[in-house]
C-alpha cells in the first residue's frame, strides 16, 4: 500500500476517541511534526484497515519481522 507520495504506508492505531483501537494505513511522513507545531508535510493519505483484514496484516508483519531477524544474522 502506497501513500500519495508513493511511499510505503505505515500501520497506525487510533489511541483516543470513538475509534480507539482501530487500525489504519497512513502516510509515513505523519508523525510528531503534527503535534510539535512544525509544518505538516504528510500527504493526508489514510485508509481504514477492515477487521476482516487484520489476520492478513498480522501475517504480513510476522513475515517482515522474520525477514529482519534473518538479515540480522
TrEMBL record:
InterPro entries recorded: Znf_GRF
User: Is Metal-binding set as a keyword in this record?
Assistant: yes
Gene Ontology MF terms in the entry:
zinc ion binding
Pfam families for this protein: Zn_ribbon_GRF
PROSITE patterns from the xrefs?
Answer: ZF_GRF
* Keywords carried by this UniProt record: Metal-binding, Zinc, Zinc-finger
List residues of the GRF-type domain. Answer: 3-52
Please indicate which superkingdom the organism of origin belongs to: Eukaryota
The protein here is known as: GRF-type domain-containing protein
